Amino acid sequence: MARTERFEMRVDEEILERIDRWRGSQDDVPSRAEATRRLIELGLASSVETSDEIVKFSDGERVLILMMRDLYKRLKVEEAEVDADFLADAIYGGHYWAPKWEMSGVFHGEEDDPSDVHFVGDVLDMWSQIERSYERLDEKEKARIAREAEPFGKDVRLRGFDGNNESSLLGIANFFIKKMGRFEEFRGRDLNSHFPSVDIHKRMLAVYAPMEKMLVGRGLNADQIIQLLQAQAYRATEP
User: Which residues share a beta bridge with 192?
Assistant: First the structure.
């Protein structure tokens, strides 16, 4: 049974009368306390459902939308991604459910987790450093990396994130690169690793963190790159 907690609430006579009328309309005529509990549950459920189904515009946003509609008409804009007439009609008619139905690509309710953004940024930064440093090494050092960090040392490059199981992280990485112009060295590369990569990147970042503090004005050496590449391998912890 769920744990309950007692609390007191003071209301005026008008609210009490409304509660009494409501509980009197119920088949089992619950007590005031039970009626109040049921009304709270109904109110909370209604609030959640409504917030999920409608789009809320502030007064200022409504004015801006209507101004945008008028501006579109004045400039005779015929093709636009946002249908200003539709939004204006929804506002005037109070149809705040309609934008989510008609413009699901805009009002999808999804939002990147800030911790995911920082994680992806750290991964891209680390691999940018690894690849730049690797390219500066001579062939002898590259051969040593291939040998000592086998099999990861034969193709030293960022694989990315799994498009099936880590799609949000892959989307963040692509937005960094394609839309924000960050980490240009990865532009045009398919960053769908096609295998789960989060744990791999986490192991590498744990090794990279103390190295990063010492990289001011210089790149990674062959030994450091070998350590980072070796960190990709899963090692079961001892019991």
Answer: 161
Count of beta carbons in the 10 Å neighbourhood of residue 87: 22
Which H/E stretch holds residue 102?
helix 98-102
**pLDDT tens readout for residues 115-128:** 999 999 999 999 99
Percent of the chain scoring above 70 in pLDDT? 90
Phi, psi at residue 169, to the nearest 5°? -70, -40
In angstroms, what CA-CA distances link 4 with 1, 7, 8, 37, 200?
Answer: 9, 10, 13, 12, 44
CB neighbours of residue 120 within 10 Å: 24
Q: How far apart are CA 135 and CA 127, in angstroms?
A: 12
* Global pTM value: 0.65
Vertex 93: Cα angle to 52 and 65 (nearest 5): 80
Integer Cα distance of 207 and 226 in angstroms:
11
Phi-psi region of 109 (alpha: psi -120 to 50; beta: other; left: phi over 0): left
CA distance 228 to 233: 10
Coarse DSSP helix, strand, coil percentages of the chain, rounded to the nearest 5 percent: 60, 0, 40
Sign of CA dihedral 125, 130, 131, 136: positive
